[in-house]
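RECORD TYPE: inverse folding
INPUT: structure tokens
STRUCTURE:
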């Protein structure tokens, strides 16, 4: 079954609505009927426009990653003057209360992509690590490549752990920022 052009206005509108729905409801129990109802359409239209539920989920995750990477690249520009300042801005952006739904969706997709059985989220975690590491390495000009990659890997692991901690509601974002910026010595 062929699907309409990926740039059609209706398809773009429904992808936006589907993304908003998954931010609120998650991916694990995603069902086309409630999603279609919330998007003011029908499951049949969603299947026509996206080909399958799996393809719709892939596109929702691709949209989430594109948005995130665009904003992170702006916050952590290649050639940034001060990596600590970049991390502070990045944390403040990620930890903002309005970003919590997107962060929850990210971790849900990340965890689902680690499962042995394939699904529309397959490869999400690996691609995320690759994308974020590249941005964090590029934000460290003048640092030896091995050190920049090690620092980016450590920073990424710490960022993600702190974000998970933040999502539990057990910690103050400012306290977690201090942990992120602490010297690891």
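DESIGNED SEQUENCE:
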């Amino acid at each position: 079954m062929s699907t309409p052009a990926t740039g059609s206005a209706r398809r773009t509108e429904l992808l936006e609505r589907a993304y908003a729905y998954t931010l609120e409801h998650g991916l694990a129990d995603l069902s086309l009927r409630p999603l279609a109802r919330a998007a003011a359409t029908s499951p049949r239209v969603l299947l026509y426009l996206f080909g399958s539920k799996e393809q719709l989920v892939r596109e929702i995750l691709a949209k989430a990653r594109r948005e995130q990477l665009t904003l992170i690249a702006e916050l952590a520009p290649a050639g940034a003057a001060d990596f600590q300042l970049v991390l502070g801005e990045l944390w403040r952006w990620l930890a903002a209360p309005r970003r919590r739904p997107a962060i929850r969706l990210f971790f849900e997709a990340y965890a689902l992509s680690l499962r042995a059985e394939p699904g529309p989220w397959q490869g999400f975690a690996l691609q995320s690590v690759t994308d974020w590491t590249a941005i964090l390495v590029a934000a460290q000009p003048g640092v030896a490549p091995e050190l920049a990659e090690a620092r980016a890997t450590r920073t990424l692991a710490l960022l993600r752990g702190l974000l998970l901690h933040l999502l539990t509601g057990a910690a103050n974002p400012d306290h977690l920022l201090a942990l992120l910026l602490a010297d690891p010595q």
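NOTES: The longest helix spans residues 53-75.
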